[in-house]
UniProtKB/TrEMBL annotation:
Residues 63-191 form the CzcB-like barrel-sandwich hybrid domain. Keywords: Coiled coil. Pfam families: Beta-barrel_RND_2, BSH_CzcB. InterPro entries: Beta-barrel_RND_2, BSH_CzcB-like, RND_pump_MFP. One of its GO terms (molecular function) is efflux transmembrane transporter activity. This is RND family efflux transporter, MFP subunit. Signal peptide: none annotated. NCBIfam families: RND_mfp. The keyword Coiled coil applies.
Amino acid sequence: MKKYTYIIAVITLSIFMTSCGSDKKKIVADNSAPIAVKVSAVQADGNNPFLTASGKIQAENSADLSTRMMGFVNKVHVNVGDNVRKGQLLVSINNADLQAKRAQVNAGITEATAAYNNAQKDYNRFKNLFADNSASQKEMDDMTAHFEMAKARLEAANQMKNEVNSQFAYSNITAPFSGVVTSKNIEAGDMANPGIILISLEAPGKFEVIAMVPESEISQIKKGTEVDVVVKSINKIINGKVIEVSTSAKNTGGQYLVKVALDKTDTNILSGMFTTVQFPIAKKATASTMVLIPKEAIITKGQLSGVYITSESNTVVLRWLRLGRTFGDNVEVLSGLSADESYIVSAEGKLFNGAKISIQ
């Protein structure tokens, strides 16, 4: 009986010690130190002097090359990134059918030439006979008509040869200017179809920006205006000049196209880079105040962008945002954050929704 009492006492003591240990751990967890953070007030910029528009860089001289004929590709002579000179052969398309047609045309020209020469001799002979009153007017008229028809057939045969020769230009695709191959959309053995882009070229060195401006601002932009172009990916500013201003938004979704020629620069810019064009034009009095936050404060999860803010109980809250244009190191907040709020700039630990913080 004493043995069983001893065992029960040991089990009871073990359970008591385990409960005390769990309570101790829970107390430690509940009393964990808050994460030290630094916060900053939202920057509201209502005096930005620039009227801005988003744009994209493209080469001033570019071409998408295609063919007017259908045929198998014999060989592609270049690769993406190759430098090519004007007139250099880029793509060869099988032209056996054109060669057969040219042979037929040449045979037709030979036949038409022989008929023309014979008709010309008959015409000259009847012309002399008619002058000597040895041929009637009707015979002379018939011979003249025969000669004119032979002449027309020869001309038609020669024009057909010109048509065939022009088709050969579409079986051998050549570079229209010196530049760089930017895309190659076909390989040897593929079928080339009319109108399908085979090779794309760009002339390096000269670039321009195509910007889209809303209808409320387009009237303020004039041709010849000097502008600053912010290249977002490399954080550089390049000077430029407005060279075209569209007067119609019929085919551009309500946005007006503005073309800006970029000054020559040593900055490594490439076609397709996104930009912000800053026009030195005062904004209208009705322009809304912009809310700006630094890029490093942005939290990205997939395609969502947000920022950590503080609650009244000193905990972290992840607020999703809708972002707009970029101005240097700052990003415009279109919705999700107001000018009277603060956001977390840095923290001494990993932040998450509901984490306790202490503001430094």
